[in-house]
Amino acid sequence: MAKICPITKKGSIMAGGYSNRTRATKFNPTGKVRKYPNLQKKKVFVPELGKTFNLEISTQGMRTLAKNGAYATLKKAGIFK
């Protein structure tokens, strides 16, 4: 399974930078690192459908679920038709 949140569509990014020590002295890049979103396994029950969905969603996606409701959020994300 890809490391992408189905609700927020967050995926990995390439990040890299310089340490403060490097900035202060000379050019010496620290290299690129892939950073992943904070995905959590969550079991979500949708009362309108009477079904439970096992999702791997980001923590921001969990907040969206809590705010907008499970049915509306999962329908908008295209988890079910």
Descriptive tags:
rod-shaped, two-stranded antiparallel sheet, 3 helices, 30% strand, alpha+beta, Ribosomal Protein L24e, Chain: T, single chain
Fold topology:
Elements lengths: L12 E4 L3 H5 L7 E4 L3 E8 L4 E8 H10 L1 H8 L4
Antiparallel strand pairs: 1-2, 3-4
Helix pairs in contact: 2-3
Please explain how this structure is put together:
The chain is of the alpha+beta class and 81 residues long. The protein has a single domain (13-77), classed as Ribosomal Protein L24e, Chain: T. It is built from 3 helices and 4 strands. A hairpin with a 4-residue loop joins β3 and β4 (51-58). α2 (59-68) crosses α3. It is rod-shaped, with a radius of gyration of 18 Å.
Could you estimate the helical fraction of the residues in percent? 25-40%
- Main beta-sheet strand count, sense and barrel state: 2 strands, antiparallel
Number of strands: 4
Poorly predicted ranges (pLDDT <50, ≥5 residues)? none
SS field, number of helical segments: 3
Distance separating the two termini = 21 Å
Instruction: Give the CATH architecture.
Output: Roll
- Rg, rounded, reads 18 Å
Q: How many domain units?
A: 1
* Shape call: rod-shaped
User: How would you state the average pLDDT, rounded?
Assistant: 89
Instruction: Name the beta content range.
Output: 25-35%
Order of helices and strands: EHEEEHH
